[in-house]
Specification:
globular, mainly alpha, single chain, 12 helices
Amino acid sequence: MSFLLATLAELAQLVLLLLLAPFLTDLSAMLFARLAGRAMPPLGARWRQLQRNWRTLRPVPPLAWLSLLATGMVLAALPLGTAHTNFSILSDPLALGMLLIAARLPVWFLVVVTRQDARRDHQARHLVAQDMRAVALLLPLLALSDALMAIGLPGAGNIAGLVRDMPIQPAPALTGALVFVAAALLAILQNSLLPPERFETLIPEAEGRARAVLRYGHDLTACGWILLLADLAWPESIAGESAGTRALLTSWLLTAPLRLLGVATLAATWRALAPPHPLRAALTLAGAATLLVLAGRFAA
């Protein structure tokens, strides 16, 4: 029976995230337009855009389908409403972050091999170079989250382990440190891999179904990053295996949507306000997270 419940939770999570991802893109575009003083697109515009693209029969590059597979693995492994799912044991931040980065590879490859006009080609290649620099910063931050969990709560191992062990062995220093790490990751992501309007510059030559798949892949990848940040910043809000019916309903119907909407709103607001020196902010937050966990460990 436990396996059946875990399977049902897994399927519900995947269906919900697959449907919700374009709406998170809508939310990001709406907030960004509002803060920039422009007219906001209506909610649901992304789904209608994807449907229009899909109706135009054009071949889809096989790599684009592979990116959907990589992102789907992340969305299946990260806990949403409960950690009691079949793949939550794979919820390692570094491994899942690498999968999300790999999901971007088809877009980078298409930019390199597709011939565009000189201006678009230069702009797209410049954005790919910026993405590469962002990845060089994201990987150490993701590795840092793994290291902090190993130091602050030995035996947890991953996000599902945090959900399991934190009620038994509270680790306030680690909790605060993971919030700092999530904020550091957001400081890098909000100007590189998350913005939908930036993604459009990378795929100007894609048309029809190819464009629909690439756009949907971006939405799913952005949703994966947002869920990863939300899980790192607030693992206590995820229901564990022993949670009762009331706790499960609260987690699924209230805290899970609020976590996703909160991170998506923060990302769009941060990007619209364009705070200076995101790299400096990320390094400062990462340093604070490290010091906080070490201080908590030595004080224990």
